[in-house]
User: Which sequence fits this backbone?
């Protein structure tokens, strides 16, 4: 490869040992876990690419910030500081802390959704759709069609198809659409970004129909980087300025602070609407805690405030994206099929192209994730038919066009050498892909089955 990748913009101050296991040991561990990588013990995993959620290595300044945690039950000074930082960097007037992103999704869904409503979004996310459906809404995918083509390499595959959104408004009426859920970036499309122009257009269309736009802002800084890199007019703007403009096209957001806020726990719900804020503060007491801490300790709010500042550092985000691209480039050079272009937080193996001989009903992505663990102790996760779940009305599997395995890169945790181990394991599996068989699901939870479902290899 003749591409230059930047060195880590940090030095290592503390280390944590990782597991070194034998093939025989891994065979035992994956069988005990029912071929579900979520059910593996962390101590049995070598390189953990299950998720970037809460797996960040916090900085020395974040650890120092935790020492000034104010654990008052009400009126914590750390909450006031976090509120100040959110207003400064994101621009929203109100913030309601939650224990993590799905706590914010729960509040938003309960406050805004009525039975029979429709919530359009640029591809579903598992917990988001679950909360929407539990409150009586129907999710409608309005992402551009190109996002469902793993091999198509075009920019901003996360964009909303405005024609789809307009058609839904005409079909069901604006009064049955409480908000548009706009993910920046789009996880299940492969970490694909949304352009600033598209955000602006969605906001303008929704404003004409008095429909709110709520961002899933979990990986908003990564999205800002792609805008800076690839959208005309933004090359000379700072990540911080781009992020602030992005948020100006939303009425609020849900945030899992465990991603781009660079902490191990926590999240929040933001909004500008005073009435919506009052409803959220009433409900957060029931599910999370006082409005001035929600589901977070004071020390975690302080670490999050510092993490938000660090997240817009230009050297940090450039290195983060470069790590994803390094792994993607290694796999592409070896012919391993992945989602193109490479997204901001992970490389996604295209399991449908990797294992074309395994039907989707035999869970090829689930098996590929298990095989990667067997090969090298690397833990990844399925993002395909298992994650998609079942249609609540028909009971049939949702059958997404994308059948993926996500190789998620935690922030500031692994080096390029670790990524070489991952790449080598994927390449080795691809060379022997014809020997891999499918799975049978032997235990299926009713909700969010991918977390705890169990499987066994087909004979």
Assistant:
């Amino acid at each position: 490869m003749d591409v230059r990748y930047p060195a880590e913009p940090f030095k290592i101050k503390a280390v944590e040992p990782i597991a070194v296991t034998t093939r025989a040991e891994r065979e035992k561990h994956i069988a005990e876990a029912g071929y579900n990588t979520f059910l593996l013990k962390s101590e049995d995993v070598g390189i953990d690419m299950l998720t970037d959620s809460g797996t960040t290595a916090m900085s020395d300044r974040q650890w120092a910030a935790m020492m000034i945690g104010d654990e008052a039950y009400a009126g914590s000074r750390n909450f006031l500081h976090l509120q100040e930082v959110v207003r400064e960097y994101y621009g929203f007037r109100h913030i309601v802390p939650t224990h993590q992103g799905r706590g914010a999704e729960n509040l938003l869904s309960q406050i805004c959704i009525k039975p029979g409503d429709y919530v359009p979004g640029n591809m579903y996310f598992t917990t988001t759709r679950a909360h929407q459906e539990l409150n009586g809404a129907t999710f409608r995918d309005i992402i551009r069609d190109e996002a469902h083509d793993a091999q198509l390499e075009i920019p901003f595959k996360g964009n909303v198809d405005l024609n789809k959104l307009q058609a839904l408004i005409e079909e069901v009426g604006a009064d049955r659409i409480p908000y548009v859920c706009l993910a920046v970036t789009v996880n299940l499309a492969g970490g694909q970004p949304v352009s600033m122009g598209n955000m602006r257009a969605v906001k303008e269309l929704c404003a004409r129909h008095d429909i709110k736009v709520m961002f899933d802002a979990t990986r908003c800084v990564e999205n800002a980087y792609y805008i800076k890199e690839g959208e005309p007019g933004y090359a000379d703007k700072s990540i911080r300025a781009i992020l602030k403009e992005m948020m100006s096209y939303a009425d609020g957001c849900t945030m899992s602070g465990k991603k781009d806020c660079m902490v191990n726990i926590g999240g929040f719900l933001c909004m500008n609407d005073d009435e919506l804020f009052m409803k959220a503060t009433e409900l957060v007491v029931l599910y999370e805690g006082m409005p001035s801490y929600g589901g977070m300790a004071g020390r975690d709010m302080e670490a999050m405030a510092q993490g938000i500042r660090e997240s817009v550092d230009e050297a940090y985000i450039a290195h983060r994206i470069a790590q994803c691209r390094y792994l993607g480039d290694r796999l592409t050079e070896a012919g391993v099929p992945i989602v193109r272009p490479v997204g901001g937080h992970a490389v996604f193996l295209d399991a449908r192209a990797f294992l074309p001989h395994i039907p989707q009903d035999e869970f090829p992505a689930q098996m590929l994730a298990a095989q990667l663990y067997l090969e090298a102790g690397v833990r990844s996760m399925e993002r395909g038919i298992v994650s998609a779940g079942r249609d609540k009305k028909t009971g049939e599997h949702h059958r997404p066009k994308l059948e993926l395995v996500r190789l998620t890169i935690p922030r500031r945790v692994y080096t390029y050498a670790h990524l070489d181990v991952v790449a080598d394991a994927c390449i080795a599996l691809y060379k022997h892909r014809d020997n891999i068989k499918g799975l049978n699901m032997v235990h299926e939870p009713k909700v969010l089955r991918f977390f705890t479902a169990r499987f066994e290899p087909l004979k």
